[in-house]
Amino acid sequence: MNQLTLSIIFYLFAAVTVVSAAFVVFSKNVIYSAFALLFTLFGVAALYVFLSADFIAITQLVVYVGGILVLLLFGVMFTNTIMQTDIKTDVMHVVPGTILLILMIAGMLYTFYTTGDWMPGEAQLQGSVVQRIGIETMSRYMLPFEMASVVLLVALLGAAFLARYDKAHKNEH
Amino acid sequence: MSQSPSLNTWSEALSGFYIGWLPLGLLIVAAVPLIFIALYALTYGVYGERKISAFMQDRLGPMEVGKWGILQTLADILKLLQKEDIVPTAADKFLFVIGPVIMFVGSFMAFVVLPYGPAFIGADLNVGLFYAIGIVSFEVVGILASGWGSNNKWALYGAIRSVAQIVSYEIPASIALLCGAMMAGTLSMQQFCVLQSGPYGFIHYYLFSNPIAWLPFLIYFIASLAENNRAPFDIPEAESELVAGFFTEYSGMKFAMFFLAEYGSMFMVSAIISIVFLGGWASPLPNIGGFALNEWTSGPVWGAFWIIMKAFFFIFVQMWLRWTLPRLRVDQLMFLCWKVLTPFAFIAFVLTAVWEIYK
Question: Are A3 and A56 members of one domain?
Answer without folding.
Answer: yes
